[in-house]
Structures
1.
Amino acid sequence: MQEKGTISIHTENIFPIIKKFLYSDHEIFLRELISNAVDATQKLKRLTLMGENKDEEGDLTIHVSFDKDKKTITISDHGIGMTADEIKKYINQIAFSGATEFVEKFKGKDDIKDIIGKFGLGFYSAFMVASKVEIITKSYQEGASPAKWVCDGTTEFEIMPTEKESRGTDIILHIAEDSVEFLDEWRIKGILDKYCRFLPVPIQFGTTEERVEDGKDEEGKPKYKTVTSPRIINDTEPLWTKSPSELKDEDYLEFYRTLYPMSEEPLFWIHLNVDYPFNLTGILYFPRVKNDFEVQKNKIQLYSRQVFITDEVKDVVPEFLMLLHGVIDSPDIPLNVSRSYLQSDSNVKKINAHITKKVADKLGELFRNDRASYESKWDDIGIFVKYGMLSEDKFYEKAKDFALFKSTDDKYFTLDEYREKVAPLQTDKDEQVIYLYTTDPGKQDTFISNAKKRDYDVLLMDSVIDQHYVNFLEQKLEKTQLKRVDADTIDKLIDKDENLESVLSDDEKDKVKTIFEEAVKNQQMTISVESLSPEDLPVTITMNEFMRRMKDMARTGGGGFAMMGNMPDQFELTVNGNHPLIGKILRSKKAEKKHQLAKQAYDLAMLSQNMLTGNDLTRFIQRSVELASEQ
């Protein structure tokens, strides 16, 4: 019996909406149709287990094929199939109410993924690329007659009897002129590799040819033949679906190579396996990040029942863990998700919190079980931990026990251990414990050496987020300040109110200041003469800690500090009145000699801060040669 009718959607606007709104994501039509085929196949398996399917299951491979001449793409499965009545129920009546409100609500919006998920339009995504769609299907039910459904992209359809020997469904897409790009083998394979590489039912797309050895010729040399085999594009049992107890380290590493063939091996991994109060499986890998973490994002793949959804998982995974690699799979997240869905869904929020907890627990376990190994990985994982502490208070509460400081001596300390180490010697007159740090040991070596002469310790804080981390720690750690080792003279950085006696009179100090003002002639320098240790440098150039920190924040994206980044640099030039060179300058008979020596001391201070360049550097070198010749 042949039948014609109208699809029950109560509006003729549905297909233009599908085509218009889905266009930016139009390749997902293949994912949707194959997902339907997988569902049909898995339903058949369940019916067989329940004893309701009397037919032999046979080969359940799903086949994807195309015909460039006929301009068709076909998806064939051997699942439960449909009767004519089931076609009317599941295909012709799109399951939503209030079509007019639907059209108005989503008109002009880009995020149609949410629409598909809410209104069951997955099958109709076929019309993004097809001018006509045919369904040829035969139900598993005993005695069922095959049926054919045809629709040309309007609301008109036709159902008719047809011939089909085997159980299952063939979806035939007649590709529209504006979508012929999909009639290409490598375009289709690319989509299959992206969305279907881990589906639980075998997916075949064409065949592959391989040369294999086939005996020896008369001379004993190997002969070869070409063997054709089905091209199965997916792994039906990916690693995250298996129990951790049956897996070895090499299994995890091999899977990582499959996901990221060009990456270094990961440091370690976390296998997620939760079935209450939500379902979640997956494997998260800690990669070697170093300081270029921005380019590492969007490496976690989100799946739903082994179907790829997206690699933009910001709302599923905490922001600071976006640096991780791996896979998350949850059937509680629908295939077609919108940003608003991810932000509001309670299960997504629970998953987010659970992942944070699992990562914190794993890091804590690694630290406690093998501290030496943990310390060896800190240079790579430190950025995760610091980023997490900055981002989430709950993570900070756990991480403060396994977050490490690294000193310039390559020694590691927990936050509590470090305070205990430096507090006796690095507490200032106001009872503030001062943590000295360097952002560049090579450039700041002179200042580090001066600190170590006092037996002070210096931390290495050179990652891209350490400037923010420094500010954060000062808010969290009681009676603690962090100061960059080149932010001032060492006795001012840790001010113990111990004034050294000056070898210069006040009048001599004024003369020294005048000499340096005339020699330097730099409006950015505020010059002062201080009584420091004779072993300290004769001249030190520093930038005020507060001003420098604000400028650093502006450079690294601290939005509220943008204005500070545009302000001219201001430096403090500290002349050590107790250094022998300053006495020599005062004793010089000629004003020219005084200025020459003062300029030389100034240039040495500039050089120690990597601020001496161009013509000034050339003149410094020439002056150094002249002074050496006078000796």
Note: Confidence is low (pLDDT under 50) at residues 95-103, 105-120.
2.
Amino acid sequence: MKVQDSSKATRRDRLSIDNKSCIDHPNWYRGYRARLKTRQHCGMYTFFNIDSCIEAASSQLSNFFSFMLENYVHIQEKDPTLVNRLFGCAPQDDRGRQECIGIIEVPESYSGPRLQFPLNTNSLTIMIEAFKKQQILHAYYVLEILFETKEAMKQMPNFTHIRTCPTKEITICGDLHGKLEDLLLIFSKNGLPSGYNPYVFNGDFVDRGKYSIEILMILFVSFLLFGDDLCLNRGNHEDFLMNMRYGFTKEVLSKYKIHGKKILQVLEEVFAWLPLGTIIDDEILIMHGGISESTDLNLLHHIERNKMKSVLMPPVPMDKDSGTETKKNKGHVPRGVKLSGSPSDYLTKHEWEQVIDILWSDPRGKRGCYPNTCRGGGCYFGPDVTSKFLNKNRLKLLIRSHECKPEGYEICHDGKVITVFSASNYYEEGSNRGAYIKVGFCTTLRFFQYQVTKATCLRPLHQRVNTIESSAIRILKERMVSRKTDLIRSFQLQDRTKSGKISMGQWAFSMENTLGLNLPWRTLSSHLVLTDDDGNIDYMTCFHDIHIQKPVKEAQSALIETLYRYRSDLQIIFNVIDSDHSGLISMEEFHSMWKLFCSHYNLHIGDSQVDELAERMDLNKDGSIDFNEFLKAFYVIHQLDNLSRSNTQLA
């Protein structure tokens, strides 16, 4: 009988335990990373769905403006400039350019970048270095660049055709959304635009970020210097009505208090002249959004794109003398509305829809083409629609942007559709990478990812996921409180026993139907509501830690919720009326537009309640409302701002 050495046995046992630990530890870590990634995806998905719903509300404003013209024609008599402005009938001319720029002087005290015209490559470098120091370009230079850009854009076709060659690659960038750091990082990694380093920027240069005007100046100067090798496509945010909601208008007026209005007017013209897309080597089509089953590339090549001042404004071509509808656009037409210009000054309904489709659409895995209910504009198009479109037009690939992707890009439809998104940290610090694509001569595409790294981005993954998660829950709760009355009504319909509790399934059904958000409600429930030991939901706990601040204590909750829910729509409408951007709206305009707004949206809020609220808000009794301050009075208070359950994992 052989006696076993106990010391050797102990070593073997210890080794066996260590080996098991080595095996288990990677498995545990992989599971941990997977759970974090799931939580990150859930947070991103929540952001995307709410963001898309907000954009849907923006796109649906087109219905409101049609309604306005049909039912409120005395606006045209009272303020014809407003109607003409909405339909883009105020073209600038060369004399206007001289009058505009000639009266502006750059004072000696100005310490920002000084440019020489005609521009040269040194101008671009000087401007970029100044923007890095957060210096603001003088309004004189901004307007000069805008007028020059508009004249150059007029010579461009709707689709720019460019070619690769053995000595250079073409770089394709997606949405930047005012994030100057991302653009500068791209230039740092990939080089400045030049004849040897061509770029395609695929729309959505502005809104959301703080440096939209700086991005525009860099891109426009680059275009003026290297027009054949710098392509700029229009996105759905190159639109003056979208800019009123998403921040670009506010940014310009804040940075250029004297000449901001003029800059915005000229920008409307420049945006309208932006090309609709780019085609590389007659094989790769680059457009901002996507396609539909009815997208006609030949029609889009010949459409008069400058007539589309805003995709949110539907075409209403009218005969100037008779006020009758042209044969191009049949349907109900507002009587008595006469716009300056002839019907040929406007796009037909079919042309308008074509442009909306290429700026707003998104690819999906489901076959066919169906309405983009999430955004409210454009469509969802499947792989079969993509294949048919590419085959018909003898193309091989569609590159688009328009959607934030966690890795900065995504490939779908059997490799025939690629989404590229260049704004990193789009929703929150650490939420996503940015990316750009390089296309070479007879070579495969190369993808480059990056992320602007600030102090917050250096935190561990679990901390970054917690930040994304908490922010997503915060904006979701704000949407919930704006529909509090409707949600409670839906909950109570499910609560047949009046116990104050419903099942998880009933709660999820009410949330999705009322808010119109397709979210993983069961997963999110631990962040939004309390559950008892039997798994039933105490539905009123949805609102325990959050409420809307009332500007007037006596105001009814239903009224406050309604105003909060439609605050962005109202802000756009009143910003359009406030043509001098003074921030002041007359009481008469407030009352009239609110009545029209309620009528269109079928809101059952008494006019007298809103009138009384407006009068109370007019503190100095001068007959005007500071509408921006009026809107700020409606904000959501989070009593538990740190979200006590924020550490609860979604997965």
Note: The mean pLDDT is 80.
3.
Amino acid sequence: MDRGERQLEGLGERAVIATHRSFTITDPRQVDNPLVWVNPSFTALTGYPAEEVVGRNCRFLQGRNTDRVAVSRVADALRQHRPITEVLLNYRRDGTAFWNEIAISPVFDSTGDLVNFVGVQGDVTERVVVEQERRAALAEAEEARGQLRMLAEATTQMTAALGVVDACERLARSLVPALADLCAVDVLDVPGRGVPRRLVVAARDAVDEERLRDLGRLRNYHVGGGSDTGHVLAGDRPVLVPDLPERGADRYPEDPAAAGVYDTLRLRSVMVVPVRARGRVLGALTLLTQHPYGRRYGPRDLHLATDIAGRAGLAIDNARLYEADHAAAVTLQRSLLPAVSDVDGVQVAARYLVGVDGNQVGGDWYDVLDLPDGALGLAIGDVAGHDLRAAAAMGQLRGVLRSYAWDGGHPGSVLDRCDQLVQGLEMAAMATAVYARVEPPDPDGARILCYANAGHPAPLLVEPDGTLVRLDEQRSPMIGAIRGLGRRAGPGRAEAVRRCLPGTLLLLYTDGLTDVAGEDADGRTSLLERTLAQLPLDAAADDVVERVLEVCSPRRLRDDVALLAVRLDR
């Protein structure tokens, strides 16, 4: 080596010694690859003087929280004689921790043999802490977004519910498994007091649902009772137990049966929060996690659960009000409809199904009249609308139609006089209707059917030989559709007449059976006709309506359905 090379080498050594970067050299040819040289910056970084570290493997910088996976990656690189850069949590001589970025490179001689490893270390604690804080902030923001999504989803699900059980079911399903492994909703039969009922349970594992129900039965929760649920039902603060006892005997020392069920559920953490609305406690929401993977609940989880329970309270209270209104509406609706029964020589059956839209009060109706002149009057109709006004109009129309029919009026004139009522009283509602008279049998047993149709779906008739006929002759506009139509002089609306042999079946229905949103009305009418045609020729009227509803009822009944079947006995 000439003088210039020796000067450059010396300059490099002085630079390594003077730099603020920590340098180390190890000798892999010795046992355990010990340090053979460190620069002063290493001593300043770690607090270890050179005489304490030379001859030792540098793993003395590791501690209890050093990432063992990262250490393994470094060891693999050394065995494979390749460079590596890692960030490790290391410890100084005084025990303080710091994040150490190490870059290790192998050094080979002119023959290609490994002679040393050179390590460069740097304190990157500030950088790592900033990165960890950034990641923590991002994780916290993502968790907050997740909670908002969960809150929005639960609210959306419950808002769509129409009953208390439906609302509770939607609530529980939206929280499992997003927030809980197990969920139970207990609802008081009387808000603020009464007896709680475990309406709904949901679980990640379906087997645990019945176990959770069993636990509720065994504990027999009641307002103010000696349980977390009882205290919450009494209006106390929410309950959070981050770490439940592992053994059921520790949780329920006085109740071996409940302790046994508790053991099968493998519970880890629980929250019980009150379900409130309008200042009253309606019930309690219980959320649980399970070993081994369930989360450990904390105050933030309790805050979220309390918010969800508050929204659930409004949904459940609204569902209670809806159910009360629904029951009243159904009672009102049915009170306006007759109880039909067979008349001499005729089988009669009727059904009324209440739709789920609107206020559950609609304008559909049917009627069967055993008229004083021996004829049988049949009526079916549908007032536009699904509210109390439509129901009131329906009641008026039905009453007037009965009165005019009782006087022996022909079908066309009866509908005309109903039209006069709508226009004379300036009722806003329009209506469709069919009125028919079935005359007494002639000597051959046949009956004359005379009918008029004001914009209503055509009745269907099945003759004794199975021929299906759509009674769509002489149709006229809806009642109330054309001003002055009901006041015209002369004969009433056009009528159609048909002779019916014994064994004839007549079916009258409202459009809730065929006009379904998103479906083809003609296709549904064809389905109804096929169903009717496939029935036995001697099927009883009751069997007819049951089969028609079984096959033709919409999956979601949005509109009311009235159905009237009449079988003329042979």
Note: Confidence is low (pLDDT under 50) at residues 4-12.
4.
Amino acid sequence: MSNYVTKSGLSVHPLLVDFVEKEALPGLSVSADQFWNGFAELVREHAPTNAKLLAKRDMLQSQIDEWHHKYGPVANNAQGYEFFLRDIGYLVPEPGDFTIETEYLDPEIASLCGPQLVVPVSNARYALNAANARWGSLYDALYGTDAIARDGDLTPGQGYNASRGAAVVRRAAEFLDASFPLASGSHADVTGYHVVKDGSTRHLQVDTPAGRTGLRDPAAFAGYGGTEESGEIVLRHNGLHVILVIDPKSTIGAAHKAGLADVVVEAALTTIQDCEDSVAAVDAEDKVGVYRNWLGLMTGTLEDTFEKGGQTITRKLKADRVYKDANGEPLVLKGRSLLLVRNVGHLMTTDAVMLDGKPVGEGLMDAAVTALCAMHDRGMNSKWASIYVVKPKMHGPEEVAFACTVFDAVERFLGLAPKTIKIGIMDEERRTSANLKAAIYEARERVFFINTGFLDRTGDEIHTSMEAGAVLRKDEIKAERWIASYEDRNVLIGLACGFSGKAQIGKGMWARPDDMAAMLEAKIGHPNAGANTAWVPSPTAAVLHALHYHQVDVFEAQARRHNQPVPALSELFSMPIQAPFSLSREEITRELENNAQGILGYVVRWVQQGVGCSKVPDINNVGLMEDRATCRISAQAVANWIRHGLVSRDEVTSVFERMAVVVDEQNKNDPVYRPMAENYQSVAFQAALDLALKGADQPSGYTEPLLHAARRKVKARDAK
């Protein structure tokens, strides 16, 4: 630690010192001494509590393991299991009815419903793309994906396919007819759009073969830009804006009877800039890179220059869109997503800061530094200067309360108004799911978001029930009633706590970014279930998912569900075990191969290249979005089958070696990829194998400890 800098009794890596003092603090009223003194006090006061909470996780898990050793799966004694969980303090008393009290929430959180992106903030290009995904071309999203069929005359080619383009225009007209119907006729037949002045106000009129008409709901016309006969026309439905781009001189507009060159939709209302599961930040250098990008987003100065299509492109944050409303007054539409930041959980420590020779809690550092960076927001992000922190991997109300206590302390030493830092509760651990109302109660003055997700939640379900028996195959788990119970409980408890019109209820990721036709069919289920928002894997997917929020009035869906009964805890705890000898050796091998290939495909990029989230081809070469949460599921599933004798450790090792050949082939065109099949002792291969072989012994089944150690080893080797 000879090169560390002493700050208020802390040993701080010089890279972090320089970032804080030379980049994050300038322009703020916070002094360096104020920051370091406050941060040091935060660590000294709250690190012991953090350690006690982690120890309690381990204690509760060991007690649950013992129960399963005695009684077997939950189904053998369901009532006794629930009584036991209450007795050990896993289940806590549910609070009486209450309504959340969070103040100063932006419209994107409280009153607007639409898609949400999650993006690794460590990648400036991706971070900017996501921030700019507030608006997107419907024409481009339809033309470039399988949302429009890709066979016959509609097959995309090297150049522009006019037949495919015409199909896109027809599909866009169907959307306009559904969301902005005309008083008579169809948008498909419009020959002209006109903004017409009537006294002091303006309204939209359209020409059709049957004559001039208008919108069935004239109030859906929100504004215009350019001239009154061309330019852009702004429409509004369910709180979301859609822009008709009129440009008869453009290639697309020239082919349209009304010169409609594009339909631009308001898409990703919010974006989580992620410091956690989708990044690979293992040391001070990595963490400073993460913080620097977050700071650039808050100051509005982040840029990234890259080569694309033989051209050099510089990407930066988009400006707001400025129009005139129906009265001719300025209408300013926000040009970017509302940005949230996901901190790490309570588990990991970081040697970017040391106290008494020991690494400090990484979550404590994230809370302090991301809030410091967010203080540079002058209303470009949040009109209230609220700071939206998504907090993952919290186990139960006690840990939620601890996060809120940490935010209290950060606010005090940074001089922020109380409750400036809002908290998003990720409902991804079973102890939180089972105590959700109590968890929300602990954060009732800060909470802005609760979120469910099959991908995250299943890993914890498997680990918590590790000793109950062999788990089902992953595809079978998706259909289990405990999953439906989990999703329903989250929405219904959120509504009972007063979330409707005040805070977000979110749903999880669509994991197949190339399969947009299926997403359009399936993901409408999220707003129909009463979710204000749901995760999508790309800006293009956000544009398409935005259509669902025109089809469904989420607040009506929430009103419909408000008094539905909350599924009982017995439903939540109902995951069955695999019946003995119910699977053939072929089925077992196939499932093992699928899990092994997914783990290897993700881990090799994480360890070798520091890529925390990527589209990884599965065993059938279908691209799936993978992060640590999906990796945790696969690793825990294999670890469980080892524990219960469905597969042996030698068999798992053999399958991983075979799948390494498959993954090497899938990555053969990556110039920086290092094949694993040539060296089964490589750091990447051994890390992937360890996730399975040692998975049952990992804290809560998390992948971070093993992945961080492997990545640090590779970075140290490459630095020599």
Note: DSSP finds 26 helices and 26 strands in the chain.
